[in-house]
């Protein structure tokens, strides 16, 4: 028996808009719960229509929940399919900047679903089509200036982010940072996603002893913690990138910073970015423009064999000097 | 039937499998429609009448891009349709994901490893034909939402 969901004026009578990572979402839905969940993201409207996207959410009691597989992502040309059992199914049209989904009532009422899945997946997939580049790096802020920390998977970006957060840096993001251009400057945004710390981080942060490990979307076991409530770390939504560190973990030895060239920054972010199909060539070019502007920031390779706390202390001292050297 | 190496495609920077090569191509005639099929798997080439006029193009032409997805396991679930004016998406579990862009006249699909040739030819190919005909031959009756509606909201 087929199930047919139609997305039109009659089936989606409620509307609102909200702002996320430098974009504006125009939400149409049949659910008050979805309207209520979107409230927390409402802010100043973004006038630039090139940064608008449409989200149409049908909330159905009968949405399929008996799915036997885990989260499943596939895409071809400008279309992307996202299955998120038991929450529902989403289809993205990246050329028209639209996402349509059928979700369960529980999903749209669940703040964790919005903060950890729906919005990060949506901005991650559609950001480049709105000149917002999702880059795989952490972002921390102090005194209005942001430090981006990039590095290979497993280098320790998240534990270092937590350690810097405990030294008074505000955390914008620990994994994905969404960077756009506004009035000639770069703006780095986060989504308030929980800090994801691998099991071995517990030896450095006693607060994790009271937390449970969870299986994350990519199958890893990790602590997913609210940095504010669990670790007393300040969280901010946006900051202006000023410096970049590329973290390299070595077996032992003190933290050492080596300046790196613009070409290294360009190469790192271009080669670690998701490949896009021909249909999204304009999106790829706008992402490159953002990376090129980002590569103008002073950047260093940080090699460290120290604990996250010791490395954070070294970074704090180094940035104090760099602030005056590059002011 | 032989499968190409591209069914073993792995690229860490293409987690969505958007760039899987589809080197096999054939052109068919389905009623008034001329359908160009691209795939990475011989078994996904439909058993349908071939088009004899291979140079013809125009409004009656449509593209199907069908990818065998070796990492998608399981059998077909009952179809769930998400329909709008510009797009029809059908989900049958991870085993079958289809998207038909009405304006661009493109149908894309991922077929899981456990969808066998018989199920594909006897159930899915007629399903794709019906879906294509319904979407492109005027069975859409919805009223689209315009951007100005959002702006006025």
Number of strands of chain B: 7
Counting DSSP H or I runs of 4 or more residues, the number of helices of chain A is 8
User: SS-based structural class of chain B?
Assistant: alpha/beta
**Shape label of chain B:** globular
Tell me the strand percentage band of chain A.
25-35%
End-to-end separation of chain A in angstroms reads: 66 Å
> Over the alpha carbons, how many angstroms does the gyration radius of chain B reach?
16 Å
Please give the share of residues in helix of chain B.
10-25%
Report the biggest beta sheet of chain B as strand number plus sense, adding barrel if it closes: 7 strands, mixed
**CA distance, first residue to last residue of chain B:** 55 Å
Instruction: State the CATH superfamily name of the largest domain in chain A.
Output: P-loop containing nucleotide triphosphate hydrolases
Number of strands of chain A: 20
Poorly predicted tracts of residues of chain A:
none
Tally of separate domains of chain A: 2
The overall average pLDDT of chain B, rounded, is 84
Strand order, largest beta sheet of chain B: 1-2-3-7-6-5-4
What are the SSEs and their pairings?
The complex is a heterodimer of chains A (327) and B (153).
Chain A: E1 3-6, E2 14-20, E3 23-29, H1 32-39, E4 52-59, E5 72-76, E6 79-84, E7 88-93, E8 98-103, H2 105-109, H3 111-126, E9 132-136, E10 138-142, E11 145-151, H4 157-166, E12 170-173, E13 176-182, E14 185-189, E15 195-197, E16 214-215, E17 221-225, H5 227-231, E18 238-249, E19 256-259, H6 262-272, H7 281-294, E20 299-304, H8 308-326
Chain B: E1 24-30, E2 33-39, E3 61-69, E4 80-83, E5 87-91, E6 96-101, E7 106-112, H1 117-136, H2 147-152
What is the structure about, briefly put?
With 327 residues, chain A is of the alpha+beta class. Chain A contains 8 helices and 20 strands.
3D architecture notes:
The complex is a heterodimer of chains A (327) and B (153). Chain A is α+β, with helices and mostly antiparallel strands. Chain A folds into two domains: 14-129, no CATH class; 133-198 and 226-326, Rossmann fold, CATH 3.40.50. Helices cover 27% and strands 35% of the residues of chain A. Chain A contains eight helices and 20 strands. Chain A has helices at residues 32-39, 105-109, 111-126, 157-166, 227-231, 262-272, 281-294, 308-326, and strands spanning 3-6, 14-20, 23-29, 52-59, 72-76, 79-84, 88-93, 98-103, 132-136, 138-142, 145-151, 170-173, 176-182, 185-189, 195-197, 214-215, 221-225, 238-249, 256-259, 299-304. The longest helix of chain A is centred in the C-terminal third of the chain and has 19 residues, at 308-326. Chain A is globular and about 65 Å long. The relative contact order of chain A is 0.12. The mean pLDDT of chain A is 92. With 153 residues, chain B is α/β, with parallel strands linked by helices. Chain B has one domain (5-140). Helix content of chain B is 17%, strand content 29%. In chain B, strands 1-2-3-7-6-5-4 form a seven-stranded mixed beta sheet, covered by helices on one side. In chain B, a hairpin with a 4-residue loop joins strand 6 (96-101) and strand 7 (106-112). Chain B starts with 23 loop residues before the first strand and ends with a helix. Chains A and B meet through strand 1, strand 2, strand 4, strand 5 and strand 6 of A and strand 3, strand 4, strand 5, strand 6 and strand 7 of B. Strand 1 (3-6) of chain A pairs parallel with strand 4 of chain B, so a sheet runs across the interface.
